[in-house]
Amino acid sequence: MPKKPVPNQGRKKNMVKSNANALRIIPLGGLGEIGKNMTAFEYGNDIIVVDIGSIFPREDMPGVDLVIPDTSYLQMNRDRVRGYMITHGHEDHIGAAPYVLREIPAPVYATKLTSALIESKLKEHKLLGSAKINVIEPGDIVEAGAFKVEFIKMSHSIAGTCALAIHTPVGVVVHTGDFKVDYTPVDGQLMDFNRLAALGSEGVLLLMADSTNVERPGYTMSERKVGETFNNLFDRAQGRIIIAMFASNVHRIQMVIDAAVSRKRRVCLIGRSMVNVARLSMQLGYMDVPDGYLINADDLDRYPDDEIIVITTGSQGEPMSGLSRMAFQEHKKLEIRPGDMVIVSATPIPGNEKSVSRVLNQLVKTGADVIYDALAEVHVSGHARQEELKLMQALIKPKFFIPVHGEYRHLYHHANLAVTMGVPEENVLIPDNGTVIEVTKDEMRASDVVPSGAVLIDGLGIGDVGETVLRDRKHLSEDGLIIVVIGLDHEDGTLVSGPDIVSRGFVYVKENEDIMEGARATVRRVLDAKLYSGISTGALKDVIREALSRYIYDTIKRNPMILTIIV
Amino acid sequence: MPKKPVPNQGRKKNMVKSNANALRIIPLGGLGEIGKNMTAFEYGNDIIVVDIGSIFPREDMPGVDLVIPDTSYLQMNRDRVRGYMITHGHEDHIGAAPYVLREIPAPVYATKLTSALIESKLKEHKLLGSAKINVIEPGDIVEAGAFKVEFIKMSHSIAGTCALAIHTPVGVVVHTGDFKVDYTPVDGQLMDFNRLAALGSEGVLLLMADSTNVERPGYTMSERKVGETFNNLFDRAQGRIIIAMFASNVHRIQMVIDAAVSRKRRVCLIGRSMVNVARLSMQLGYMDVPDGYLINADDLDRYPDDEIIVITTGSQGEPMSGLSRMAFQEHKKLEIRPGDMVIVSATPIPGNEKSVSRVLNQLVKTGADVIYDALAEVHVSGHARQEELKLMQALIKPKFFIPVHGEYRHLYHHANLAVTMGVPEENVLIPDNGTVIEVTKDEMRASDVVPSGAVLIDGLGIGDVGETVLRDRKHLSEDGLIIVVIGLDHEDGTLVSGPDIVSRGFVYVKENEDIMEGARATVRRVLDAKLYSGISTGALKDVIREALSRYIYDTIKRNPMILTIIV
Fold first, then answer.
1. Which residues of A are catalytic?
2. Closest by Cα among B94, B95, B78 to B86
3. CB contact under 8 A, A565 and B474
4. Residue of B nearest to A63 (CA)
5. Which stretches of B286-421 are assigned E, i.e. beta strand?
6. Angle value at C-alpha A325, between A320 and A329, nearest 5 degrees
7. pLDDT in tens, A104-123
8. What H or E segment, with its residue span, contains residue A175?
9. End-to-end CA distance of chain A
10. Tens-digit pLDDT profile for residues A11-61
11. What is the pTM of this model?
């Protein structure tokens, strides 16, 4: 059994008494998932940060637009931050960029597409120029304080993905980033097995690796498998083809374009992020559409149905996305109709199952030929399964191992996998977000805890929606609200107006006047009893709330939020 | 392509002008799923109802305790209801019993366990005796008006499951209920292949069949497969074994008991529904525990760890369930600890993925050996896959086919499966809830629509939570609430008190006093302008709400609900 960190054993927060010659690694931020969105590496006076991603919100966070990692540890140490090393351009690795770079500016290092996606984010937030973004190539080495960071080409579901070999004074740390093994990548460029193997031969102190698919045996299929399925499906399509997928999967989009062009179909991109990413990818040479093949949504009617392919967003069932609006006939430019072939090239991210299902049902109802993951291999994962994770262990042969990028149980099973591959049990550590892990040539241990976790963004507010606000929102959403308004005489506290009762989200009032009348009577009884004439307004509110709460629960077994307003 | 009903083609609701000699079939109620929870069969003056189940609530129904089918059509025709035929005892087939039987009493027919579960529900609602419950055996035929209903033994994930052969004046309808094919059922009693085949030979007019697993190729494994996995796991367990599963899967519980007893482990049942169902099952002879093997949770400490098996609820990650409370160390009788083996014998029902995941992570953190569906075959479905559905078509050879029990896309694929098995395309109809399907010897068509859908139950209120209330709850949950209280002079409408502002679920007020002050200033500006002195209170409220809403959106990009109270 791998050892687990015992965080914060009697040590004060932020008062880190550490081995000055140790490398310190701190996963920062996350909800459920550990070591994914942002990780700090610290040696002496220098800090580098790997990834600045946003966090998937939990279902109990209504109204929250975005969740980002808590940056307070970095803010306390902002003068020591030497750079941001970004592995790839997915939201969970770059989505917090506008918030983090504004507060703690430092140079950013990333490959072409990743850089372009970060820049486009900064532009949207009117923050362009707030941090210098350095475009690097796989193979490049970046110097940042005590660290030399080497970018190593990997395969994943977005172009330009890299692992990092972080050369530190105590040894080399290999951080895989997100990866899968793909022996037949769409762009023909293999992940850099040779460099990984060479690092392994030279000696790697610590491996940190992607745990997402550790529960799955075998290998993840090549992205090309999806291309084969597309080709087979396209051969059978008689009318228009509409494909929904993640805009960021540039290689998959390219496969669709290639298959379209070989069949003389025009390509139409629909959806803001689809158009945006495709534009960037074409500018940067990641994507190629022959002249004349790209058409505008307004021109769809000018081509026969069997000469059209539409690529759009919404593969996660997002209600405002292209696919959803097309399915429900709410899209201005395109309605799905019988004769269309619709391909949903994705599997639902956990939590999205029901919204995806809703869109699939609606698509099938339109009479179109609808293909999704239960029916054909229209999607493969971007993450390595067990045998690929074993290959990584075999290549790197690390002394120490930290599983990252997964929920606790994934990290746990990944830790066990490393042990079966020969990493000594005592050299494996399962981290938690906020855990400070000290690594020297000889030892790895959890030494401390720093503030970490999630900061909620709602509209322009960052972090002002906390536990209390969420608890109120949950309470309001479950049984609604009752407001009691009473006017009391200044002198003797007798009722001069009201009680008036306003409710929202409680019952349909018109059909439940008796409950409302009962509620008014309850408040009147409390006041008429005059037992509370001497007490403070606050105490009187409590008494009214309690009496009303009891009346409503007894009557209808609900617990609405009750607010009393005394004038 | 199978034909689809075009509901309500210009006909008035409830004004059914039907062929008096036709059988009328009406699926009633459901959210997303069709033909599952309750179905009416009507001929002449007689109605029978198949199943009276509750409906899984949708995620956008906060605070809703239970959802039941709309019974208004049955209420309008209550004198004609001759009986309820219940296929099996799962919640989605009996959960609405207390509400339906109270409103529309008629005899209920069901096998032993199903009857006992319905009775236990009625007892809980203090409604015992409100309907006569007739215990029948598989093979029995019930006469109800124009119908003869034959109960046919089937395999499913609860004991006592039956299909129905409904003998009507126009021909025989076979309704499969929920089923799978299990050649090695735990109780040794095969589903009645012979009777189904005999019906097929004699001629079946219409088949209605379970579509749940139609997207899955091949066969669902036998329940015994799970028993084999349990035996292998138990052999490896060194300490306590804790298994979570649905209380209703009596056969699976029996397999655990058998495996426990053969290893001299005592059996402890934890969880209200687990204890309740097991007690009923033992009384009825569905379950058997040798004397002395059943122990109380209070006595767990009296036995060595390797002589204990605990069977509990919570396999869906329900926060208040046995398993969840044990995992988070909140259970009074049992805390999971290192050395325990925990088996979660289920797959998440769609929508429950995240809560299951949360409990699994916590279980792994306790240091126990945690086994779940991603790691071992600890669960099999209760529903037939493609090859089993084909077997059903082959045995029954129906003239007409209606796929039921599934979302639209499942029904659609099941319709196609029937067509590939030889049912003519024009003899297949995909229903919707509320569709009236008329069937004669020669024809099947959608003839009308009656009220159907879902009735929400929150506390004691049935149906008083509708669209408006849910919309308010959603609004409140997303951006919270702001209440503005102002006192205006009776005579000249000048401000005499306030504006006071109260908020809930909006921002953390103490840290956002400036927003609150801005809000008060905004309201004051509206009133000071005196442009609205002549207008009604309602109109003034609108003006204040609009101004405040604009201020708040401009300041923080949120849209709280705004209520203005003028005294």
1. 210, 383
2. B94
3. no
4. B478
5. 294-295, 308-312, 341-344, 369-371, 400-404, 406-407
6. 155
7. 999 999 999 999 999 999 99
8. strand A171-175
9. 64
10. 344 444 567 789 999 999 788 899 999 999 999 999 999 999 999 888 778
11. 0.87
